[in-house]
Amino acid sequence: MIRLTSRDAPKIHGVKRIYDEVHGYIELSGVELKIVDSAVFQRLRFVRQLAAAWYVYPGATHTRFSHSLGVMHIMGLVTSRLIDLGYIYSIDDVQLLRLAALLHDIGHTPFSHAIEPFYKYKLNIGHEDLSKIVILENSDIREILSSYGYDPKTIVALLEGRYKEPLYNQLLSSDVDVDRMDYLIRDALHTGVAYGSIDLQRIIATLVVDGEGNLAILDKGIDALENFYLARMHMYKTVYYHKTLVGYEMMLRRIYEYMNEYTEDPLFPKSRDDIIRIARSGDIALWHDDWFLGMMIDMYRRGRCRELKELIEAFFLRRGYKVVVDRSRFDMNPIDIDGDRDVVMLKEIVNGVKSRVEAHQIALFVDDIKILDEDPYIAPRIIVDGRASIPITDVENSVVRVIPRRYHIKRLYAIGSKWQDVREYLTAKGFIDA
Hints:
- The protein has 18 helices and ten strands.
- Helix content is 48%, strand content 12%.
- It is of the alpha+beta class.
- The longest helix is centred in the first third of the chain and has 22 residues, at 64-85.
- The strands form three sheets. It has a four-stranded mixed sheet with strand order 3-4-8-9. Strands 5, 6, 7 and 10 form a four-stranded antiparallel sheet that branches. The protein has a two-stranded antiparallel sheet with strand order 1-2.
- Helix 4 (91-103) crosses helix 8, helix 6 packs antiparallel against helix 8 (152-159) and helix 6 (127-137) packs across helix 14 (272-281).
- It has a domain at 6-245: Orthogonal Bundle (Hypothetical protein af1432).
- The protein is globular and about 65 Å long.
């Protein structure tokens, strides 16, 4: 087995360079370039990273394509650090980890998190499952990996966190993994939200492995790690779950639900077998945001469904769901959906306004977002004064001990044309102030 130092790392790169707006030049190896050039990966150029966030932040038009390259690049930086520390010894391991990082988002649906809850609810398939299907079933991806000596099943094992080397799993799936490192920086840049920035170089420079084989941070890097969590908390509130952004994501989901019912187009898969079928045929390369927007225009012009036409028109004219009631807040504990007074109240309101609005004109959004995972096997560990590592939540002088663990989102939305009517009704009933 070849013993590496970080000076050796360039030996697995150098076939092609791509300039990235976040990281500068990103170098691709031969197998990476083959993957990037495949039709199913090029599809990610047409899947926006933040769904319809450009309705709130006009610059947020970046894609899953650039994000995937960025995650792979950061994985290269992290593995170089681990090579110097003596925890990675094989060039093949470095390449394997970079490939897993490159392919981690290969299965995202059109408009990503806007549409994916539809398949999670209907088929119990999340975007991780979709990525697994693409890697294992698409002949281009499978054959490229195999021709370079990499087993697609091993890539999937890494993405699912069940690879034989636990340290490698943590690089791709933990509270501070390479995915989060890239999207926080990239999303902050494109939305212009300054407090989403993190000190990536400092985090990587202080990465170590503790005595139990877990990723850890030296205590001199704790400030950068604290900023990572604060940035994440602010980004959840101001970007990822911005009230207007969520409204348009829910509208896209409703539109997709209607269109899935009214069309037999194979790119509206209705079962797991349908998804496998389009992955195998290669048709999945066309399953992206621009295809869906085109289908929306076509369906609108046909006018087959009045409710669908109203939703599509509201989306394109930016007259979508607007918040009527918002009871969102940060909290230290998980939300009790059945016992939460705000949720109970919002459900009562939904029942009360049914006589004034149609089902497609109102939407309830409730979610419990985890900001920090206190599981000692997921939360990052800190090595204090050179001793054994402890979870960052146990570091006495760390601000992470006191930041909220959850973001409870509890909102009622109404379509723009009905927003004033709903608001007047709720004011008259005393649910909200005038």
